Amino acid sequence: MNKGIFYGYKIVAASSVVQMMTLGCVYTYGALFSEFESEFGWSRALISGAASLFFLLYGAFGIVAGTATDRFGPRIVLTGCGILFGTGFLLMNQMTSIWELYLFYGLMCGLGMAAHDVTVLSTVARWFVTKRGLMSGIVKSGAGIGQTIVPLVAAPLILIAGWRETCLLIGIATLIVLIVAAQIFRRDPKGVGLRPLMEGKDEKIQEVAVNFSLREAASKKQFWLLSFAKFSDMFCLFTVIIHIVPHGIDQGLVSTTAVMILSAIGGFSILGRVLFGSMYDYLGARLSLIFCFATLLLSLIFLQTSFDPELLFLFALIYGVAHGGFFTVASPSAAEFFGTQAHGMILGFILFFGTLGGTIGPLIAGIIFDHTNSYENAFLLLTGIAIFGLFFANQLRPTLP
């Protein structure tokens, strides 16, 4: 590996691009939600079900992606998943039946999405020690950029060319970009004759004395606290992502304005990703997660007590910061407690528990709306789940070998 710029920074840049394209497409699904409802007459619970299948497979296959990353390296895993994800998204332009939505988005995109977090963040954790939180924040900022830009591109495309052509164009672009970005990845510095960035390591956050295997990690209380906290935050986060646009439309916003709420969340999440990534390097997992859950709770309380639809953009500011923070601190938290030897597999299991929440949450919210014609009880449920998450985060303590 040639000298010059530290190669880990190139991996961070490629990781940001992967995050940008995959999360941009996920947010675009929220923009497509009302189009499916209008054209096909499908219920919100039915459309949410495809997203729930997506999140379930994303989490379950994330364990496989993490294990494969530990064994075979990130390049192969990201290439395969990129092909699956991009192809699934572009094939939605052909669908005429609900089973096709579940096949193309739920199954193909869900499996393809599995590597976007566990593989890229596990790789970054191996390349960085001192700036691990900040680098994770920069990587996840790519997700925020995608969440901001791609729905803003999709909204006028839907109006001008229709949702089918929008899926085709965005899917092709995603397919190409993901394959190219995957070729930059290398598993760890040792494999190319380098060392991870360690100089100036803050004494407040020390690597665990032992690199835990998955079995050893699962025997620790911290593993389950992180898993249940991740279940709680993703239950809330993915429910908001899927339902905030139809909620905004219900409150009186036109569809293009409602889609801008998604983009605003993505934009403000960039602030949360960088802020919490930087804070993590000084605060560690426990305090970082506590601040994330406190911010999430504040946003949910505001959502239920403000009735002017324009105030949804202020909600997007508060919520977006928490949203970005949660996704930034997950990987360094796992590395802080369990080391990096089996980081991909361990992070994959923690994220799997999270995606169980991401699977159940949107579906329950859709069912509640279909029965009550309101999101009031759904948002109240999210508040309770966020309180549970705060409790789990507060119980975290350092891991003993």
Description:
The protein is mainly alpha-helical. The protein has a single domain, classed as Growth Hormone, Chain: A (Up-down Bundle), CATH 1.20.1250.20. It has helices spanning 7-40, 44-72, 74-91, 98-113, 115-127, 132-161, 163-182, 214-218, 221-250, 255-305, 312-338, 343-372, 376-394. The protein is globular and about 55 Å long. Residues 199-208 have low confidence and may be disordered.
Order of helices and strands: HHHHHHHHHHHHH
The second-level CATH architecture is: Up-down Bundle
- Average pLDDT, rounded to a whole number, is 88
Number of domains: 1
Rg over CA atoms: 20 Å
Largest sheet: none
The CATH superfamily is identified as MFS general substrate transporter like domains
Q: What is the CATH domain class?
A: Mainly Alpha
Strand percentage: under 5%
The tally of strands reads 0
Helix content bin: over 70%
